[in-house]
Amino acid sequence: MHRILFPALLTLATASAPAVADSYHCVSLAYPPLIRQDAGGPAHGLAVDVVRAVFARLGHDMTVEVMPWARSLTLVRLGQRDCVFTIFQTPEREQYLDFSRESIIPQLIYFYAKKDAGVVFNGDLDALAGRRVGTVMKVNYGEKFDAARAHFTVQEVATLEQNFRKLLLGRIDLVPSNVYTASYTLAKMHDAAVDAEVVQLPVPLDNVASHIAFAKSRQLTALRDQFDKELKAYVASGAYRHLLEQYRIAITPEMAQFLDHN
Fold it and tell me: Could you tell me which residue, 30 or 177, shows the higher pLDDT?
Protein backbone atom coordinates (compact mmCIF):
# COMPACT_ATOMS: atom_id res chain seq x y z
CA MET A 1 0.00 0.00 0.00
CA HIS A 2 2.70 2.45 1.01
CA ARG A 3 4.82 1.46 -1.95
CA ILE A 4 1.93 2.33 -4.27
CA LEU A 5 1.07 5.69 -2.67
CA PHE A 6 4.58 7.02 -2.15
CA PRO A 7 5.41 7.71 -5.81
CA ALA A 8 2.01 9.38 -6.28
CA LEU A 9 2.55 11.58 -3.23
CA LEU A 10 6.04 12.43 -4.40
CA THR A 11 4.73 13.42 -7.82
CA LEU A 12 2.04 15.61 -6.24
CA ALA A 13 4.56 17.31 -4.00
CA THR A 14 6.87 18.00 -6.92
CA ALA A 15 4.07 19.44 -9.02
CA SER A 16 2.91 21.66 -6.16
CA ALA A 17 6.36 23.06 -5.34
CA PRO A 18 7.02 26.55 -6.71
CA ALA A 19 9.75 26.97 -9.31
CA VAL A 20 13.09 27.88 -7.81
CA ALA A 21 13.80 31.56 -8.40
CA ASP A 22 17.25 32.36 -9.74
CA SER A 23 19.06 35.66 -9.48
CA TYR A 24 20.82 37.12 -12.50
CA HIS A 25 23.31 39.94 -12.63
CA CYS A 26 23.21 42.41 -15.53
CA VAL A 27 25.41 45.35 -16.44
CA SER A 28 24.75 48.51 -18.40
CA LEU A 29 25.87 52.09 -18.80
CA ALA A 30 24.15 55.29 -17.74
CA TYR A 31 21.84 55.94 -20.68
CA PRO A 32 18.91 57.96 -19.30
CA PRO A 33 15.99 57.77 -19.54
CA LEU A 34 16.55 54.12 -20.52
CA ILE A 35 19.07 53.38 -17.76
CA ARG A 36 20.06 55.75 -14.97
CA GLN A 37 21.33 55.63 -11.42
CA ASP A 38 21.11 58.35 -8.83
CA ALA A 39 23.78 58.61 -6.14
CA GLY A 40 23.50 55.66 -3.79
CA GLY A 41 20.30 54.37 -5.36
CA PRO A 42 19.40 51.38 -7.53
CA ALA A 43 19.42 51.50 -11.32
CA HIS A 44 16.12 52.52 -12.87
CA GLY A 45 14.70 53.79 -16.15
CA LEU A 46 12.51 52.50 -18.98
CA ALA A 47 14.82 49.68 -20.11
CA VAL A 48 15.56 48.65 -16.52
CA ASP A 49 11.85 48.50 -15.72
CA VAL A 50 11.15 46.40 -18.81
CA VAL A 51 13.94 43.91 -18.15
CA ARG A 52 13.11 43.64 -14.45
CA ALA A 53 9.40 43.08 -15.23
CA VAL A 54 10.17 40.30 -17.73
CA PHE A 55 12.52 38.55 -15.29
CA ALA A 56 9.84 38.82 -12.59
CA ARG A 57 7.26 37.25 -14.94
CA LEU A 58 9.72 34.37 -15.36
CA GLY A 59 10.00 34.05 -11.58
CA HIS A 60 13.55 35.38 -11.35
CA ASP A 61 15.32 38.24 -9.60
CA MET A 62 17.83 40.47 -11.34
CA THR A 63 20.26 43.22 -10.41
CA VAL A 64 21.74 45.91 -12.64
CA GLU A 65 25.16 47.49 -12.21
CA VAL A 66 25.71 50.78 -14.04
CA MET A 67 29.31 51.36 -15.13
CA PRO A 68 31.32 52.57 -18.13
CA TRP A 69 30.29 50.69 -21.27
CA ALA A 70 33.72 49.24 -22.00
CA ARG A 71 33.83 47.65 -18.54
CA SER A 72 30.29 46.29 -18.92
CA LEU A 73 31.24 44.55 -22.16
CA THR A 74 34.43 43.18 -20.64
CA LEU A 75 32.58 41.65 -17.68
CA VAL A 76 30.06 39.78 -19.84
CA ARG A 77 32.77 38.73 -22.31
CA LEU A 78 34.70 37.18 -19.41
CA GLY A 79 31.54 35.55 -18.05
CA GLN A 80 31.69 37.54 -14.82
CA ARG A 81 28.15 38.87 -15.36
CA ASP A 82 25.10 37.18 -16.87
CA CYS A 83 23.68 39.81 -19.19
CA VAL A 84 23.99 43.30 -20.63
CA PHE A 85 21.47 45.78 -22.05
CA THR A 86 20.52 47.81 -24.03
CA ILE A 87 22.94 46.70 -26.70
CA PHE A 88 23.14 46.73 -30.49
CA GLN A 89 23.91 43.45 -32.20
CA THR A 90 27.21 43.25 -34.09
CA PRO A 91 29.25 40.32 -35.48
CA GLU A 92 32.05 41.06 -33.01
CA ARG A 93 29.71 40.94 -30.02
CA GLU A 94 28.01 37.78 -31.29
CA GLN A 95 31.24 35.92 -30.59
CA TYR A 96 30.66 36.13 -26.83
CA LEU A 97 26.99 37.10 -26.44
CA ASP A 98 23.62 35.44 -27.13
CA PHE A 99 21.35 38.26 -28.24
CA SER A 100 17.62 38.32 -27.62
CA ARG A 101 15.70 37.97 -30.86
CA GLU A 102 13.18 40.52 -29.60
CA SER A 103 14.16 44.16 -29.21
CA ILE A 104 13.79 45.87 -25.85
CA ILE A 105 13.29 49.23 -27.54
CA PRO A 106 13.85 50.64 -31.04
CA GLN A 107 16.48 53.37 -30.93
CA LEU A 108 16.13 56.17 -33.43
CA ILE A 109 19.60 57.66 -34.00
CA TYR A 110 19.99 61.33 -34.98
CA PHE A 111 22.90 63.67 -35.56
CA TYR A 112 23.11 66.80 -33.43
CA ALA A 113 24.96 69.88 -34.65
CA LYS A 114 25.57 73.49 -33.72
CA LYS A 115 22.92 75.83 -35.05
CA ASP A 116 23.97 77.83 -38.14
CA ALA A 117 27.13 75.72 -38.52
CA GLY A 118 26.14 74.89 -42.07
CA VAL A 119 25.90 71.14 -41.47
CA VAL A 120 23.25 69.52 -43.67
CA PHE A 121 22.26 65.85 -43.56
CA ASN A 122 19.67 64.39 -45.90
CA GLY A 123 20.49 60.75 -45.24
CA ASP A 124 23.65 60.68 -47.37
CA LEU A 125 26.56 59.96 -45.02
CA ASP A 126 29.08 60.48 -47.83
CA ALA A 127 28.17 64.17 -47.76
CA LEU A 128 29.54 64.37 -44.21
CA ALA A 129 32.96 62.93 -45.05
CA GLY A 130 35.75 64.66 -43.16
CA ARG A 131 33.51 65.98 -40.42
CA ARG A 132 34.62 65.77 -36.79
CA VAL A 133 32.20 63.44 -35.00
CA GLY A 134 32.01 63.03 -31.23
CA THR A 135 31.11 59.55 -29.97
CA VAL A 136 30.95 57.85 -26.58
CA MET A 137 33.57 55.18 -25.94
CA LYS A 138 32.53 51.70 -27.11
CA VAL A 139 28.98 52.84 -27.94
CA ASN A 140 27.66 51.54 -31.26
CA TYR A 141 25.50 53.74 -33.50
CA GLY A 142 24.31 51.14 -35.99
CA GLU A 143 25.57 49.55 -39.19
CA LYS A 144 25.23 52.69 -41.33
CA PHE A 145 27.47 54.70 -39.04
CA ASP A 146 29.96 51.85 -38.76
CA ALA A 147 30.20 51.62 -42.55
CA ALA A 148 30.96 55.34 -42.85
CA ARG A 149 33.09 55.69 -39.70
CA ALA A 150 36.42 55.66 -41.54
CA HIS A 151 35.36 58.77 -43.48
CA PHE A 152 34.91 60.83 -40.29
CA THR A 153 37.39 62.22 -37.81
CA VAL A 154 36.04 60.45 -34.73
CA GLN A 155 36.75 61.72 -31.23
CA GLU A 156 35.68 59.51 -28.32
CA VAL A 157 34.80 60.70 -24.82
CA ALA A 158 33.20 59.12 -21.76
CA THR A 159 29.76 60.79 -21.80
CA LEU A 160 27.24 62.31 -24.16
CA GLU A 161 27.21 65.55 -22.17
CA GLN A 162 30.94 65.97 -22.84
CA ASN A 163 30.24 65.74 -26.56
CA PHE A 164 27.55 68.39 -26.41
CA ARG A 165 29.99 70.68 -24.55
CA LYS A 166 32.62 70.08 -27.24
CA LEU A 167 30.01 70.80 -29.90
CA LEU A 168 29.28 74.18 -28.31
CA LEU A 169 32.99 75.01 -28.23
CA GLY A 170 33.36 74.16 -31.91
CA ARG A 171 35.74 71.26 -31.29
CA ILE A 172 33.49 68.79 -33.15
CA ASP A 173 30.87 69.17 -35.86
CA LEU A 174 28.42 66.36 -35.11
CA VAL A 175 27.19 64.22 -32.24
CA PRO A 176 25.20 61.03 -32.94
CA SER A 177 22.80 59.78 -30.28
CA ASN A 178 19.52 57.98 -29.78
CA VAL A 179 16.79 60.57 -29.48
CA TYR A 180 15.68 59.51 -25.97
CA THR A 181 19.07 60.00 -24.34
CA ALA A 182 19.91 63.13 -26.30
CA SER A 183 16.64 64.82 -25.32
CA TYR A 184 17.10 63.83 -21.68
CA THR A 185 20.75 64.97 -21.57
CA LEU A 186 20.10 68.31 -23.24
CA ALA A 187 17.23 69.06 -20.84
CA LYS A 188 19.30 68.04 -17.82
CA MET A 189 22.18 70.34 -18.74
CA HIS A 190 20.02 73.41 -17.94
CA ASP A 191 22.21 75.51 -20.19
CA ALA A 192 20.76 78.44 -22.17
CA ALA A 193 23.58 78.22 -24.69
CA VAL A 194 22.83 74.53 -25.26
CA ASP A 195 19.13 75.23 -25.73
CA ALA A 196 19.87 78.00 -28.21
CA GLU A 197 22.73 76.45 -30.16
CA VAL A 198 22.38 72.63 -30.28
CA VAL A 199 19.90 71.31 -32.85
CA GLN A 200 18.78 67.87 -33.94
CA LEU A 201 19.22 67.40 -37.67
CA PRO A 202 15.84 66.50 -39.19
CA VAL A 203 16.63 63.22 -40.96
CA PRO A 204 17.42 60.21 -38.71
CA LEU A 205 20.74 58.45 -39.20
CA ASP A 206 19.31 55.03 -38.40
CA ASN A 207 16.61 53.09 -36.56
CA VAL A 208 18.30 50.28 -34.66
CA ALA A 209 16.84 47.48 -32.56
CA SER A 210 18.46 47.27 -29.13
CA HIS A 211 18.56 44.05 -27.15
CA ILE A 212 19.45 42.29 -23.99
CA ALA A 213 22.32 39.84 -24.49
CA PHE A 214 23.52 36.94 -22.34
CA ALA A 215 27.10 35.78 -21.77
CA LYS A 216 27.69 32.70 -23.92
CA SER A 217 30.14 31.31 -21.39
CA ARG A 218 27.32 31.09 -18.83
CA GLN A 219 25.15 28.93 -21.16
CA LEU A 220 21.94 30.92 -20.83
CA THR A 221 20.40 30.36 -24.26
CA ALA A 222 17.33 28.71 -22.70
CA LEU A 223 16.84 31.80 -20.53
CA ARG A 224 17.27 33.99 -23.62
CA ASP A 225 14.49 32.10 -25.38
CA GLN A 226 12.22 32.35 -22.33
CA PHE A 227 12.95 36.06 -22.10
CA ASP A 228 11.99 36.58 -25.76
CA LYS A 229 8.65 34.84 -25.30
CA GLU A 230 7.81 36.70 -22.11
CA LEU A 231 8.88 40.07 -23.53
CA LYS A 232 6.43 39.69 -26.41
CA ALA A 233 3.67 38.89 -23.93
CA TYR A 234 4.64 41.88 -21.78
CA VAL A 235 4.45 44.30 -24.71
CA ALA A 236 1.17 42.78 -25.93
CA SER A 237 -0.34 43.20 -22.46
CA GLY A 238 -0.20 47.01 -22.70
CA ALA A 239 2.24 47.31 -19.79
CA TYR A 240 4.99 48.56 -22.11
CA ARG A 241 2.78 51.34 -23.46
CA HIS A 242 2.02 52.37 -19.88
CA LEU A 243 5.77 52.68 -19.19
CA LEU A 244 6.19 54.92 -22.24
CA GLU A 245 3.52 57.22 -20.83
CA GLN A 246 5.16 57.14 -17.40
CA TYR A 247 8.52 58.19 -18.87
CA ARG A 248 6.87 60.67 -21.26
CA ILE A 249 8.36 59.03 -24.32
CA ALA A 250 6.46 59.90 -27.48
CA ILE A 251 4.99 57.10 -29.55
CA THR A 252 6.63 57.85 -32.89
CA PRO A 253 5.70 55.91 -36.04
CA GLU A 254 8.73 53.70 -35.35
CA MET A 255 7.60 53.06 -31.77
CA ALA A 256 4.04 52.38 -32.92
CA GLN A 257 5.38 49.79 -35.37
CA PHE A 258 7.35 48.18 -32.54
CA LEU A 259 4.24 47.98 -30.34
CA ASP A 260 2.10 46.59 -33.15
CA HIS A 261 4.73 43.95 -33.98
CA ASN A 262 4.16 42.46 -30.55
Answer: 177
Residues written for the chain: 262
Q: Do the two domains 23-105+209-261 and 107-207 of this chain adopt the same fold?
A: yes
Cis-peptide, bond into residue 86, ω within 30° of zero:
yes
What is the C-alpha to C-alpha distance for residues 24 and 82, in angstroms, rounded to an integer? Answer: 6
Query: Cβ distance 87 to 35 under 8 Å?
Result: no
CATH topology of domain 107-207: D-Maltodextrin-Binding Protein; domain 2 (3.40.190)
CATH, domain 23-105+209-261, list 3.40.50.300, 3.40.50.1100, 3.30.450.20, 3.40.190.10: 3.40.190.10
Looking only at Cα atoms, what is the longest distance across the chain?
A: 90
The ranges assigned to domains in the chain are 23-105+209-261, 107-207
The full DSSP string for 136-149 is ETT----HHHHHHG
pTM of the model: 0.79
Q: What mean pLDDT value characterizes the chain?
A: 89
- 202-238 pLDDT per residue, tens: 999 999 999 999 999 999 999 999 999 999 999 999 9
**Res 46 pLDDT > 80:** yes
